[in-house]
Sequence to fold (71 residues):
Amino acid sequence: MGKLSNAIKKSSVLTIHGGADKTIPFADAHEFAKHIQNHQLTVIDGASHNYDKPQHAQQMIQLAADFMTAA
Fold:
């Protein structure tokens, strides 16, 4: 991951991880944060991998929208 992540220099990256995600280990999200510049990691407590609960899906959508519209 190191070589590829070092190539990301001009972009900002947002990772939104469900706190109850059983599909992708939480440690993977931390690896991204360690290796990718301009990386923001946000965890939604209690959210599954698919953000099945409406409140988790809404949080994810709001976080993504805020990230994309930030200056």
Remarks:
- Residues 10 and 38 are 8 Å apart (CA to CA).
- Residues 2-69 form one domain.
- The beta strands are 13-18, 39-44.
- The chain is about 45% helix and 15% strand.
